[in-house]
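Worked example 3 (structure in, sequence out).
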């Protein structure tokens, strides 16, 4: 009988999972709550499904970078078909899209001999573009109760996505381990030429693997759409990296020919557990990526050095152990103990978990008594990669410290899935109030409904959730912000000329609203012709490139509107490099420090300043009142202040008076 090594490919991720679980059991009393355990599995489901398909491809020593884009495209097609023909037709259409996308990838790799990295990098862009073109950047609402149950239902008290994840693991794990196709897959990945000479149709094997990857991405898209209640054009963005990480952690070799689905799913759960634990421990969102990266590096090290580690755990008896009869018996005993290392380790880990559970029970009881007297808040913010939201968070922290409100901050990185997962974890902590900056109105709606069910009040800002009951909302009017930008640009251009618009991330609600307001406002300025509209993704670097191309194609442009200051500053850099800054008027939105400097220096005409620091302060004032059970206004809508070169000094004095010393330096 084959002995099982402690560092066997299929068990390596299990040991890592157990060690991380032990650490978290002792680190936080919230970890072992049943609701939190289900939350970890629920948030792992989407990544696990995508990673399961990726495992088939990586066993072949190939890669599929398109899975995130395939997920988004299939989700949009599913929701669109479902709205006209019902859930069965929608599901069939989504699966067909996934299978066709996989077949295209497989054909590109096998028939054109194109490296899979390049082929799927190209199709990732194609499928993402098709998603935006088909949806026009707008989410598609799903109302079918049967479909929504895939993401929001439960069976025997366990959420449906977990059952789907387990079912897919069993089915596709069986295909890998117990079918002829599975054996052919391993043989092709191990040595394609030898497999071909052995009579295996390696082309068919590869195409099938990519099709399985596409189909499982589509299934993951079903779950994500059902959880959100809407198909988002940006769904799945960046998910391919998490899937690849789960596969590597799970022990599948990038060199091909080796791997197992169990390890992959455990790897996905491990990543989810790490995210969960870091959130429960209130680790800085800026450091969370560092921790996850370190775990991946450790997993790769284990993968490359498993032989070394096995020798450490299974050293042969000392050379002198057989020199005498007694020592020979002792050597045999020592060797026998070493062969029982996996069993000893398992018992030790189980004992540590039981001990940790006992400690957790005692600590949790004490924490519950303390929590009853203290007020706490969790702020789930859409991104901390943008100066506007960094300033919002700074204002919120400043006000929370003044009010004695305990607050932790979670960064959703403009990802609906991450925002939903972080909020779900936050609800495990039962904060006095959940402060929510939704990545989209649709994701915010799903989070608000969950919070309502958990009886945790929600104060939302910046974007209004599309469902659920809020304790309060506060934010700037995005449509009015666009109108203000149009008015300022019209004035700056003297009511005549050609203009360009830089929109935000396609498919996000704030990008849609600001663009709608801007284009509505431009109707009141008929002398200015809007000649081009492009997306700068709220990013300065991308807007630099986009604006450079726009000016090349439209040299008569004399005005540019950026839906946020980062894009407006990218336009400033492009105009500078083209020698056109003196002839182009640029208007932005947000009022960040660099933009105020540009307005003061005459590089930008104006910014529709929204004082993010003041917004953060006001949000926490209202949240603290909600946590204390006080009555507050249900909705507070703020207007931005148009800041030009004449008024920038006054605006900076206003910010300093609020305590914001960072924006105007």
């Amino acid at each position: 009988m084959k002995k099982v090594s402690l560092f066997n490919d299929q068990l390596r991720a299990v040991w890592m999972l157990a060690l991380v679980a032990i650490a978290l059991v002792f680190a936080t009393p919230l970890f072992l709550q049943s609701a939190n355990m289900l939350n970890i599995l629920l948030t792992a489901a989407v990544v696990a499904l995508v990673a399961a398909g990726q495992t088939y491809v990586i066993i072949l020593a190939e890669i599929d970078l398109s899975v995130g884009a395939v997920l988004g495209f299939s989700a949009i097609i599913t929701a669109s078909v479902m709205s006209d023909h019902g859930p069965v037709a929608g599901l069939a259409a989504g699966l067909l899209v996934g299978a066709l996308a996989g077949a295209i990838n497989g054909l590109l790799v096998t028939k054109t001999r194109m490296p899979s990295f390049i082929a799927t990098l190209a199709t990732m862009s194609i499928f993402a573009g098709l998603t935006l073109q088909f949806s026009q950047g707008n989410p598609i609402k799903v109302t079918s109760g049967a479909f929504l149950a895939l993401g929001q239902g439960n069976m025997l008290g366990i959420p449906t996505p977990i059952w789907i994840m387990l079912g897919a693991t069993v089915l596709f794990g069986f295909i890998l381990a117990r079918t002829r196709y599975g054996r052919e897959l391993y043989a092709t990945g191990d040595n394609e030429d030898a497999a071909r000479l052995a009579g295996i149709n390696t082309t068919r094997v590869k195409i099938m693997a990519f099709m399985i990857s596409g189909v499982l991405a589509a299934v993951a898209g079903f779950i994500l759409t059902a959880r959100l209640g809407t198909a988002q054009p940006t769904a799945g963005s960046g998910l391919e990296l998490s899937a690849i990480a789960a596969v590597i952690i799970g022990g599948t070799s990038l060199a091909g020919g080796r791997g197992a689905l169990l390890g992959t799913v455990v790897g996905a759960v491990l990543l989810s557990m790490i995210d969960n634990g870091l959130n429960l421990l209130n680790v800085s969102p800026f450091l969370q990526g560092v921790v996850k990266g370190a775990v991946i590096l450790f997993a790769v090290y284990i993968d490359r050095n498993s032989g070394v580690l096995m020798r450490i755990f299974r050293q042969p008896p000392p050379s002198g152990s057989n020199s005498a009869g007694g020592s020979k018996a002792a050597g045999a005993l020592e060797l026998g103990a070493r062969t029982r290392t996996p069993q000893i380790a398992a018992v030790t880990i189980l004992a540590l978990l039981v001990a940790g559970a006992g400690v957790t029970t005692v600590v949790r009881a004490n924490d519950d008594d303390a929590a009853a007297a203290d007020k706490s808040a969790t702020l789930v913010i859409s991104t901390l990669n943008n100066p506007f939201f960094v300033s919002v968070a700074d204002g919120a922290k400043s006000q929370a410290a003044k009010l004695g409100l305990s607050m932790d901050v979670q960064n959703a990185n403009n990802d609906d899935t991450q925002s939903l997962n972080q909020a779900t974890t936050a609800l495990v902590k039962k904060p006095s109030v959940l402060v929510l900056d939704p990545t989209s109105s649709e994701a915010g709606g799903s989070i608000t409904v969950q919070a309502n069910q958990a009886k945790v009040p929600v104060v939302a800002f910046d974007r209004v959730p599309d469902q659920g009951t809020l304790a309060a909302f506060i934010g700037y009017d995005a449509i009015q912000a666009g109108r203000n930008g149009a008015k300022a640009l019209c004035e700056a251009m003297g009511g005549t000329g050609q203009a360009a618009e830089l929109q935000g991330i396609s498919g996000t609600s704030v990008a849609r609203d600001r663009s709608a307001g801007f284009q509505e406002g431009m109707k009141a300025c008929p002398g200015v012709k809007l000649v081009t509209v492009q997306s700068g993704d709220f990013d300065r670097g991308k807007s630099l490139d986009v604006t450079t191309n726009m000016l090349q194609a439209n040299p008569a442009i004399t005005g540019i509107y950026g839906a946020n200051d980062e894009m407006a500053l990218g336009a400033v850099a492009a105009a500078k490099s083209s020698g056109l800054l003196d002839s182009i008027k640029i208007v932005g939105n947000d009022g960040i420090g660099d933009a105020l400097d540009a307005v003061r220096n005459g590089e930008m005409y104006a910014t529709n300043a929204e004082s993010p620091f003041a917004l953060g302060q006001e949000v926490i004032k209202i949240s603290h009142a909600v946590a204390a059970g006080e009555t507050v206004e249900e909705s507070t809508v703020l207007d931005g202040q148009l800041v030009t070169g004449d008024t920038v000094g006054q605006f900076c004095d206003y910010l300093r008076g609020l305590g914001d010393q960072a924006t105007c330096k």
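Notes: The radius of gyration is 28 Å. The longest strand covers residues 528-535.
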